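quick q for whoever's on today - can somebody do inverse folding on this one?? i tried earlier but teh output was garbage lol. tokens:
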């Protein structure tokens, strides 16, 4: 206080200047039913969503309203605090390879028992180099290239994720006609790729496809030989779940990897239609109890045999991924 202040009294305090909020994203208060349901779930069952950055999940996953960018940067700990969300997908690695430090940052934000399902970069899983609108422009020289896969995906993920690694998924994009006509070559490329990769310290390597031409005994034979598994791709471009199960039976015993991507009612190219219809992804608008019941049966059998299950669900499956996870958990336990 200055002498002048002492003579005439201290000046009134200036009002606090507006401060930029530093409040972290908080989880929505857990529902008692979800806590009880989680307690009954096998520790082998890891259910989650395809990512974690949706503002419309306010009240389901988040307490309060947050922007997509805020959730993407700082929402993972709140997501992982949900009693039923024991896994999540990291799909953005499909568009550009992620560094080990990025994987490690995610791993440090989740509790023990949480697992990540990560898509390999399109750099190695798409036979075509594409423009920004998704059109194939020219052949990709690194398609299923073991060196690129090791340097840009496997090594960073193994190093960064550690014990949180669930499934590393090579989702092979739709093949151009010329390659579809030469499937033997594609099987050989995939086989060579998987054989060249070191086994994961935990979790599993998995292959997901978008062409039914892959779904043959040749695929199961090469997966078994390489110690990898088939990822159930619940997508309209592929046969229904029940028709994909023979591949898993041929690989038994082993873990389950499943990604429920898109409701069949939208068709093979219905992502944009689904996104428009489902809005903020806060409601289950297109329940698919048949797929859910079949998937729950497979999860029960797999976990009951002591094998891990890594299952992620998109908002486009039924309208709201957290609600789909809850309904699937109820089906698994209730069955």
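ok took a stab at it. sequence:
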């Amino acid at each position: 206080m200055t002498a002048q202040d002492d003579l005439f009294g201290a000046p009134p305090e200036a009002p606090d200047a507006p401060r930029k909020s530093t409040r972290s994203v908080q989880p929505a208060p857990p529902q008692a039913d979800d806590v009880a349901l989680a307690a009954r779930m096998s520790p082998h069952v890891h259910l989650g969503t395809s990512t974690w950055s949706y503002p419309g999940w306010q009240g389901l996953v988040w307490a309060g309203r947050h922007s997509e960018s805020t959730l993407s940067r700082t929402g993972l700990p709140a997501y992982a605090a949900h009693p039923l969300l024991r896994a999540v997908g990291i799909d953005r690695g499909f568009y550009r390879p992620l560094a080990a430090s990025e994987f490690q940052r995610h791993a440090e934000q989740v509790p023990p028992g949480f697992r990540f399902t990560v898509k390999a970069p399109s750099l190695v899983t798409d036979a075509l180099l594409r423009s920004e609108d998704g059109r194939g422009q020219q052949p990709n020289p690194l398609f299923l290239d073991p060196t690129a896969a090791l340097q840009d995906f496997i090594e960073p993920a193994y190093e960064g994720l550690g014990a949180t690694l669930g499934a590393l998924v090579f989702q092979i994009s739709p093949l151009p006609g010329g390659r579809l006509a030469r499937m033997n070559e594609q099987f050989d490329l995939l086989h060579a790729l998987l054989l060249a990769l070191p086994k994961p310290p935990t979790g599993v390597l998995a292959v997901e496809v978008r062409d039914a031409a892959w779904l043959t005994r040749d695929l199961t034979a090469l997966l078994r030989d390489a110690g990898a598994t088939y990822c159930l791709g619940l997508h309209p471009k592929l046969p229904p779940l029940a028709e994909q199960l023979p591949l898993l039976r041929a690989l038994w015993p082993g873990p389950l990897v499943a990604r429920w991507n898109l409701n069949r009612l939208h068709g093979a190219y219905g992502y944009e239609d689904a996104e428009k219809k489902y809005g903020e992804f806060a409601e289950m608008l297109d329940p698919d109890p048949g797929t859910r019941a079949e998937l729950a049966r497979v999860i029960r059998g797999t976990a009951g045999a002591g094998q891990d299950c890594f299952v992620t669900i998109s908002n486009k499956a039924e309208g709201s991924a957290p609600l789909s996870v809850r309904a699937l958990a109820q089906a698994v336990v209730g069955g």
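fwiw Residues 26 and 63 are 5 Å apart (CA to CA). also The domain at 41-334 is CATH 3.20.20.410 (TIM Barrel). so keep that in mind when u check it
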